[in-house]
Design goal:
By secondary structure, this protein is of the alpha/beta class. Helices cover 38% and strands 14% of the residues. The chain has 15 helices and 14 strands. Strands 4-10-9-8-7-5-6 form a seven-stranded mixed sheet, with helices on both faces. A four-stranded mixed sheet has the order 1-2-3-13. Helix 9 links the parallel strand 8 and strand 9. The radius of gyration is 21 Å and the shape is globular.
């Protein structure tokens, strides 16, 4: 296999390992599940990444989803530059926060009130706390393989990097933090019903990725999300949709609009800041009025509602709101791409499966249909690693882990997509 020149990345990685665990600030970036050296990125524009060695990649990570307009779009860059002249952070209320809240409410009307935070993890932590405060109950239900950030209570049979590393839980998390976290099986309503039958008056909420995108992309079966909604209503629990990945990506009003399911609370992440560190949670007014300083559920954040992040996010969300045709074009070219990738795999004689919906997809290296955590785990991670390294060495930047998503942006050109498919075809032809 041909190799890129990566001497600068190798040197930076050696320096980083002396000062950061694994040389990175987030585990998947260490490339441990695929081997090799992480590429240290210097800059990005449109759909290209440029590393410290001068290598150029077509990017299919997009900062793990938020770069739906591509990297560094002019409208976002201009908004950020304008705000920078006024200051980076104030620790005080701003008009931008109000504008952002109004914009999100216009696009996702069921988010009647909201609170800005600094990450998807923080949004989930706060939404769960609000649900517990509102219901007066302690237990929560999550799904095996779904990742909701690195809050202690969520690191139970989690997806993403935890899944890739084969670590079902995390050391350092006290048993008491997870004692009230119940795990159900994705796409299995009976498993949800059984938990509620066991704890009929103790479950505060069910939290779910409406499209699971952290055990690879797993699409909800028909009626699954609606069934969760009905169970929550039956037992007086709240439904939290974790739209950190799907929000404003599948379409303007996210997965909840796509599937026609109205949650009680929604969490958002980095896409609402166009890639800057930001998150938000919100939903029904009566629930959100439980949050301080109005109610007794305390939640705060020194840098929450950061003006630079708000400016960037307003620019991106405003564009998405005003251009529904952009979603149609994105989803059409994404469908063609993933369908063609499946054809390439089929022609190679491999029984691998491509799961996709709108601009999200995953190639699972397994002959089993992937519908949940158990079936996702049958993927051959070594085979994925070989494929990933081949593609990367030919200028295609894929997630360095089997259990992550491919993200296609509005900036991906037909030429770039065709180049990627051509390389995939070459790989599978050579490796029959």
């Amino acid at each position: 296999m041909e190799q890129m020149h990566i001497a600068h990345s190798e040197a930076l990685y050696d320096r980083a390992k002396e000062l950061m665990p694994g040389g990175v600030n987030s585990p998947v970036r260490a490339f441990q599940s695929v081997g090799g050296t992480p590429r240290f990125i210097q800059r990005a524009k449109d759909q290209y990444l440029y590393d410290e060695d001068g290598n150029v990649y077509i990017d299919y990570i997009g900062s793990w989803g938020p770069m739906i307009l591509g990297h560094n779009p002019d409208i976002v860059l201009e908004a950020v530059r304008n705000q920078l002249e006024n200051g980076l952070s104030y620790g005080a209320a701003t008009a931008l926060e109000v504008e952002m809240a109004e914009l999100i409410h216009q696009i996702v009307p069921c988010v009647e009130m909201m609170r800005m935070v600094n990450s998807g993890t923080e949004a989930v932590m706060s939404a769960v706390r609000a649900a517990r405060g509102f219901t007066g109950r302690d237990k929560i239900v999550k799904f095996e393989g779904c990742y909701h950030g690195d809050a202690d209570a969520m690191l139970v049979k989690a997806g993403s990097g935890v899944m890739t590393a084969g670590i079902p839980d995390s050391s350092g998390v006290p048993k008491g933090c997870t004692a009230d976290t119940l795990s159900a099986v994705y796409n299995d309503l009976d498993s949800v019903e059984q938990l509620f039958q066991q704890y009929p008056e103790e479950i505060a909420c069910v939290i779910v990725e409406p499209v699971a995108a952290n055990m690879g992309v797993v699409v909800p079966e028909k009626g699954f999300l609606q069934g969760i909604r009905q169970i929550c209503d039956q037992y007086g629990a709240l439904l939290i949709l974790d739209e950190v990945i799907t929000g404003f990506r599948m379409q303007a009003d996210g997965a909840q609009g796509y599937f026609g399911v109205t949650p009680d609370l929604t969490t958002f992440g980095k896409i609402i800041g166009a890639g800057m560190p930001v998150g938000a949670y919100g939903g029904r007014r009566e629930i959100m009025e439980m949050v301080s300083p109005v109610g007794a559920v305390y939640q705060a954040g020194t840098l929450s509602g950061n003006p630079v992040a708000m400016a960037a996010g307003i620019a991106q969300l405003s564009y998405l709101k005003e251009h529904p045709e952009a979603y149609a074009a994105l989803n059409q070219k994404s469908d063609r791409f993933f369908e063609e990738l499946q054809k390439i795999v089929d022609e190679s004689g491999r029984g691998y499966h491509v799961n996709h919906i709108t601009s999200l997809g995953s190639l699972f290296f397994t002959d089993r249909e992937v519908v949940d955590y158990e079936s996702a785990q049958t993927s051959d991670t070594k085979a994925y690693a070989d494929y990933c390294n081949y593609m990367q060495n030919h200028g295609i930047y894929l997630a360095p882990a089997q259990f992550e998503a491919v993200f296609i942006s509005m900036e991906h050109t037909e030429e770039q997509l065709a180049r990627t498919l051509e390389l995939a075809r070459t790989y599978f032809t050579k490796n029959k």
